[in-house]
Amino acid sequence: MIIKKFKGPNEKAVLERIRTELGEEAVILHTVFVRPRGLARWFQRPCVEIVAGGGFRIIRDYPHGSMPVSPTTIVRPAPAPAISTDDLKREIAEIKEMIARRTRAAGLPGQTPELREEYAALASASISDSLARTFFERIAEKLPAAAMRDRVAVHEAMRAAIKSAIQCADGIQLEPGRCVRVAFIGPTGVGKTTTIAKLLSIYAYRGRSVAVITTDTYRIAAAEQVRRVAHLAGVPVRVCGTVPELHAALEEFKDRDLVLLDTAGRSQKDGDKIEDLCALLRAVQPDETHLVLSSVTDSGTLVDAVKRFSPCGFTKVVFTKLDEAVKVGIVLDVLSKVDTRLSFITTGQEIPRDIEVADSERLTSLILGEEGV
Ligand SMILES: Nc1nc2c(ncn2[C@@H]2O[C@H](COP(=O)(O)OP(=O)(O)OP(=O)(O)O)[C@@H](O)[C@H]2O)c(=O)[nH]1
Ligand SMILES: [Mg+2]
Description:
Layout: E1 2-8, H1 11-22, E2 27-34, E3 47-54, E4 74-75, H2 85-105, H3 113-121, H4 129-142, H5 151-164, E5 180-185, H6 192-205, E6 210-214, H7 220-233, E7 237-239, H8 243-252, E8 258-262, H9 271-284, E9 288-294, H10 299-309, E10 316-320, H11 329-337, E11 341-346, E12 355-357, H12 360-367
Parallel strand pairs: 2-4, 5-8, 5-9, 6-7, 6-8, 9-10, 10-11
Antiparallel strand pairs: 1-3, 2-3, 11-12
Bound molecules: guanosine-5'-triphosphate (GTP) and magnesium ion (MG).
Magnesium ion binds next to helix 6.
């Protein structure tokens, strides 16, 4: 069973997407006509949001086989809530950027008003101008002239361009009969330990033999947090402060399917600590190293973090705290600057619920605001 929210410029376009994604049997659960609120209402068009479900059997248990209400209910939008000063500032900055982009778009080749509008709208998704421009140019080059004037076709082309820019790794690659070691590294407080707690629970629940090694001897509470979750899942945890201890733990767990390695958060400004981390990883020889980044950090700091942790040779990226991110477009911006695939996203503090294997379709919907976390 799957229930998903779809958003688009009109009902026809949204229904087409629902049919493609959920099949002919899809059931419409809720339809809302959304008018942009605040200042955005002057610049953004209204859109249609439809919640649809697929993949379930419908049991008609109503007397005489009829439902009491129509399954498609048009709901009037609720009164707009009071806007905080911060929200207002952000909205104004977005609108300024949109206007600036519209002006800049006038100079771009092969454009139509529809394409210009899509390009400008990416400002509200926090997609950087340079990236939005790349998408614009790609679409202007590829889309036939007639389709360039079709709002739905242009939107779908922009959507496809965004989706193709999100390279996803399928979580962790387990190998039957072999112990896979996966290390998690990253700046302080981004959610490494919480992510490991989620993963150990999920893999243990799926019947995999899992073990955790933590080298975070700075924060006793961190080891305790993992221990509590691991204890419930029947997963052993070892805290290692030295390389010999690390080797002993790796030897002890060599027959496990998966060994998750937690590391202490390193400030990306502290070169020595990053060097220590690299040495630690050389001792562990992980099969995968996931760089954990928080999506509440600004784009510049994220790109800097990627650069600083590069000597450690990470192979995948995890984006945490998408539930707190003002805009998810930041994920796309960072991914476009590093040649690394996204393994997981995390969407809250709850263990193990709030983690998902990265999926480009889902990420695209989140970035465009078509779905919530
Ligand atoms: N909202 C939200 N909070 C999260 C998420 N993941 C982790 N957190 C919270 O972020 C805080 C820091 O999480 P930790 O897992 O301790 O982060 P860490 O990277 O291990 O921290 P250090 O080991 O100190 O570097 C905790 O309060 C977590 O509950 C998430 O997806 N969403
Ligand atoms: Mg930690």
